[in-house]
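Before the break, one more example. Copy the sequence into your notebook; we will annotate it together after we see the structure.
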Amino acid sequence: MGHVLKRVGTGLWMVMAMVAAGVIALIGLTQVDAQDPAGKALVIAFADFQPLQASGSVLVVDVRNADSYASGHIPGAVHAPVRAIEAGVAALKRAAKGRLVVTYCSCPSEATSLRAAQILAAAGVGAKALVGGFPRWVESGGAIARTSS
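Here is what the structure looks like once it is written out:
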């Protein structure tokens, strides 16, 4: 019985991965290839992000939905859902004051934060997506800010 469940679980995982890949392709993202300089330029490793965030050298942007942001986010992060990034590019550019913008989300593939970084970069804003996103922040023991409703 366990063997059958294991196969079903693996099959479900594969279907979910294929669906996720289709969604990524649908919104115009490709998977980031570590050998591709253009793809690598759009991400920032967690270890590289931590000192920048601690010193205030970056503008941190949470691109998740409002409920996710309210229930917990990186302290000092600005909330700008990915669907609003395009309309808010000018405001984010002003808020960044020349600093790098680091976007983050909670999805394992960083698809949402990558999309936000792509939009910002295309508009001339220095932007990168945080590898590991909010789950990695929490895992590292980072402080969590909450917004009351």
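The radius of gyration is 17 Å. The helical segments are 2-26, 37-40, 46-55, 66-71, 82-85, 89-96, 111-122, 133-139. Try to locate both features in your own notes.
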